[in-house]
Design brief:
The chain contains 13 helices and twelve strands. The chain is an alpha/beta fold and 339 residues long. It folds into two domains: 2-159 and 287-306, 3-Layer(aba) Sandwich (Rossmann fold), CATH 3.40.50.2300; 161-284, Rossmann fold (3-Layer(aba) Sandwich). This is Sugar ABC transporter substrate-binding protein.
């Protein structure tokens, strides 16, 4: 902790500094080459990588196979790596123990930086400590906003899941919902639990959690259908990922229920479902941005000693609500695979 305190006094590299440095490194073309900054020349509009030495960055997430949300995270990370002259080693596993082994493999490969998710922080604690002992900087993204500082992680990029859940709870109040079913697709995932707990904290009426097996969409659909049939008073189904929202739409139809569907997170199909009125709204945490900033932050730290938030504050990438009112503004980016 002393390391972070000393650097916090020396540096003031908050998010604007991170983004400014990124823009310099990817600067637009125009004017004489001599009039450009070194950063603009190194990583300009022609798509050239930064002129800094080649580095190797590992990203380890808790993504399940074929999860479109994590495709966005990885795409952002890949774009940042290409810009930063970095080799990206991406790996994932839903198991906390296996994620820890992937971190150890990255340490053994002597990477220059590691980006991790902390969905199950206790499982990752020892591996992160080993990375820090090897003097490898570690940043967090997406999950673990309550744990990153205690585990001596340099920076964190994501949303505060509890605050986001509370925001959704208040939104549901304004929409007149009476009975919310919050569907948790991975038991023990701290981020998912925090989302539903946040909804319950601010939603004025009835909230209940439903635990489902997120690895089996047929089972998810059946479980939601059964609960809707058992209790017709449920008028709002909240899911914690876009694929589960689309599945819940089918459950509502199967049950003959009148419940609305709201969700956390986006993908291209979910955007179309919002446009069509099948899904009421979504909460966007900008996964592409999380992947991009995590990789870019490690490059900035290695290249220039920059780090955001002073080592004490996370960089928040959400929440933002997407509904029929503003979905067209998001749809053009979703079509490109970046939202």
């Amino acid at each position: 902790m002393d390391r972070r305190s000393r650097k916090a006094r020396r540096l003031t590299a908050l998010l604007p500094a991170v983004l400014t440095a990124s823009l310099l490194a990817t600067g637009c073309s125009g004017g004489d080459a001599d009039s450009k900054s070194d950063g603009a020349r190194e990583g300009g509009a022609a798509g050239k990588a930064a002129g800094t030495p080649r580095i190797k960055i590992a990203m380890v997430t808790h993504a399940a196979p074929d999860d479109t949300f994590w495709d966005l995270v990885r795409r952002g990370a890949e774009v940042a790596a290409a810009k930063d002259n970095a080799e990206l080693l991406y790996s994932s596993d839903p198991s906390g123990a296996k994620q820890a082994r992937l971190v150890q493999e990255a340490i053994d490969r002597k990477v220059d930086g590691i980006a991790v998710t902390l969905a199950k922080p206790e499982a990752m604690k020892s591996a992160i400590a080993k990375a820090r002992a090897a003097r490898i900087p570690v940043v967090g993204l997406n999950s673990g906003i309550e744990a990153w500082k205690s585990q001596d992680v340099l920076e964190y990029f994501g949303q505060d899941e509890s605050v986001t859940g509370q925001s959704l709870g208040r939104r549901l109040n304004s929409l007149g919902a009476e009975h919310t079913l919050c569907v948790i697709h991975e038991r023990g995932n701290v981020a998912l639990e925090a989302r539903c707990a946040g909804v319950k904290k601010t939603f004025k009426n009835t909230t209940e959690n439903l635990y489902v097996n997120g690895g089996n969409m047929g089972s998810v659909r059946s479980a939601i259908t059964d609960r809707l049939q058992e209790d017709p008073s449920i008028d709002e189904v909240v899911t914690l990922g876009a694929p589960f929202a689309l599945t819940a739409v089918g459950s509502v139809s199967d049950a003959g229920a009148k419940a609305k569907v709201a969700t956390f997170d986006l993908n291209k199909e979910l955007v179309q479902a919002v446009k069509a009125g099948k899904v009421q709204l979504a909460v966007d945490q900008q996964p592409y941005l999380q992947g991009y900033l995590a990789v870019d932050a490690l490059w900035l730290y290695k290249a220039n000693g920059n780090y955001s938030g002073g080592g004490a504050a996370p960089v928040l990438t959400g929440p933002a609500f997407v509904s029929k009112d503003n979905v067209d503004d998001v749809a053009k980016f979703a079509a490109k695979g970046t939202r």
